[in-house]
Design a protein that fits this description.
Family: Belongs to the PurK/PurT family.
Bound molecules: adenosine-5'-diphosphate, magnesium ion
Largest sheet: 9 strands, antiparallel
CATH class of the largest domain: Alpha Beta
Strand content: 15-25%
Catalytic activity: 5-amino-1-(5-phospho-beta-D-ribosyl)imidazole + hydrogencarbonate + ATP = 5-carboxyamino-1-(5-phospho-D-ribosyl)imidazole + ADP + phosphate + 2 H(+)
Low-confidence stretches: none
Number of strands: 17
Order of helices and strands: EHEEHEHHHEHEEHEEEEEHEEHHEHEEH
CATH topology of the largest domain: D-amino Acid Aminotransferase, Chain A, domain 1
Structural class: alpha+beta
Organism: Hymenobacter lutimineralis
CATH superfamily of the largest domain: ATP-grasp fold, B domain
Radius of gyration: 21 Å
EC number: 6.3.4.18
Distance between the termini: 45 Å
Mean pLDDT: 95
Oligomer: single chain
InterPro entries: ATP-grasp (IPR011761), ATP-grasp_carboxylate-amine (IPR003135), ATP_grasp_subdomain_1 (IPR013815), PreATP-grasp_dom_sf (IPR016185), PurK (IPR005875), PurK_C (IPR040686), PurT/PurK_preATP-grasp (IPR054350), Rudment_hybrid_motif (IPR011054)
């Protein structure tokens, strides 16, 4: 689907996205830069992506009329919202190319299926996930309490709908495990062994309909309270051998899924000498990812460009990073001072620092923990990028 093309009904090439958040907004920007029209399906009237798209279909993700309108407007459709109902993607796929597809999104939505997929791939990817077990029934809970003490201390995570550290509880004892499962509502969960992490990293892979695969070098991620805070994207941010293993593993995971579009695979780096050989696969996101936002400013093709290329069937350029980069997430907390009073950060000073690239998502209300924007710092060398990033982080409190 080339930007200048029209379909049989004379409709100009239009790309659609389910979800109106910041990922949808940056996708829309990338699609429009290439000359596409865009359509966003999103229930919120004032969403970051809806505000910048040519078309905004303001309905729920399972509204048949809205989906029919999206399919009618668009020549290809993607999703930025991970928890879109599987049947929504299936319905759209009856008449339009949908990337990523319903099956792979379904796997990524459910930690139980996701881990089973990682286990399936382990022989090829060379990487396993943390030791874990599934808890779906009281009988399984009791069996775990009796027989899987090796998983404690651990983290109990709901199989579905968890993100940014939500839907998970850290447990040390069998009694805490029982209380945590009740606290999470007795829903399907996985109990995962707590690992001694030395770092976390992620890899972005893009795969086309024809099986062409490109990827970025792994980046190191720092989470605070379960939310991504900082991404370090430069040579030396991870040990080179480990980075190569992570990148190869992510590519094989995408290939094994027959994935189409941008996939992010997240890894734990654990203390050396462990049975895991230093690298453990954690989870995957079937879409561009917060840890890949630096690609907008530090690479010659961003993760959103690659999403557009992949879904439209255009060739995938091998992305090249031209500058070392550090990305700082801007959560709503930045808009409040130490006393909890609303305040506007000193943007003039932040933007006067060399190599700062500010991205704001136009969310109407700042709330603690809400992703409002990000700041990427690029520069000629790692040392100067680190210096500016430290200064910017200080200014942003
Ligand atoms: P989410 O879907 O919320 O991102 P994750 O499974 O990635 O859920 O967990 C959030 C964070 O919690 C991780 O980035 C990591 O810092 C920490 N964490 C999760 N699982 C483990 C584990 N098994 N051992 C140690 N830390 C973990
Ligand atoms: Mg995560």
């Amino acid at each position: 689907i080339f930007p200048g093309s029209e379909d049989a009904a004379g409709q100009k090439a239009t790309l659609g996205v389910l979800g109106g958040g910041q990922l949808g907004r940056m996708f829309v920007h990338a699609a429009q830069r290439l000359g596409y029209f865009t359509a966003v399906l999103e229930p919120d009237a004032q969403s970051p992506a809806g505000l910048v798209s040519h078309h905004h279909i303001q309905t729920g993700y399972d509204d048949p009329a809205g989906l029919a309108q999206l399919a009618q407007l668009c020549q290809a459709i993607t999703t930025e919202f991970e928890n879109v109902p599987a049947h929504t993607l299936q319905t759209l796929a009856l008449t339009r190319p949908v990337a990523p597809g319903a099956t792979v999104v379904g796997i990524a939505q459910n930690r139980i299926e996701e881990k089973a997929h990682f286990a399936d791939c382990a022989a090829v990817s060379g990487v396993t996930c943390a030791p874990y077990t599934v808890i779906e029934t009281p009988a399984q809970l009791q069996a775990v309490q009796a027989e899987r003490k090796d998983l404690l201390p651990g983290i109990l995570k709901t199989a579905r709908m968890g993100y940014d550290g939500k839907g998970q509880v850290r447990v040390r004892t069998a009694a805490e495990l029982e209380a945590a499962w009740a606290e999470l509502g007795g829903v399907a969960c996985v109990l995962e062994k707590m690992l001694p992490l030395t770092a976390e990293c992620s890899v972005l892979v893009a795969r086309g309909w024809d099986g062409q695969v490109v990827s970025y070098a792994p980046q190191r991620n720092v989470h605070v309270d379960g939310i991504l805070a900082v991404t370090h994207a430069y040579e030396g941010s991870l040990p080179p051998a480990l980075a190569t293993r992570a990148r190869d593993a992510a590519v094989s995971i995408a290939q094994h899924l027959g994935y189409v579009g941008v996939l992010c695979v997240e890894f734990f780096v654990v203390e050396d000498g462990s049975e895991h050989g230093g690298l453990v696969v954690n989870e995957m996101a079937p879409r561009p990812h917060n840890s890949g936002h630096y690609t907008l400013d530090a690479c010659d093709a961003s993760q959103f460009d690659l999403q557009v290329h992949a879904m439209a069937g255009l060739p995938l350029p091998e992305p090249r990073q031209h500058s070392p980069a550090i990305m700082l997430n801007l959560l709503g907390d930045v808009w409040f001072d130490a006393n909890g009073q609303p305040h506007e950060p000193d943007w003039a000073t932040v933007l006067s620092l060399p190599g700062t690239h500010l991205h704001l998502y136009r969310k109407l209300q700042a709330r603690a923990g809400r992703k409002m924007g990000h700041l990427t710092i690029t520069g000629p060398d790692v040392a100067s990028v680190k210096t500016v990033a430290r200064r910017a982080a200080d200014l942003l409190g």
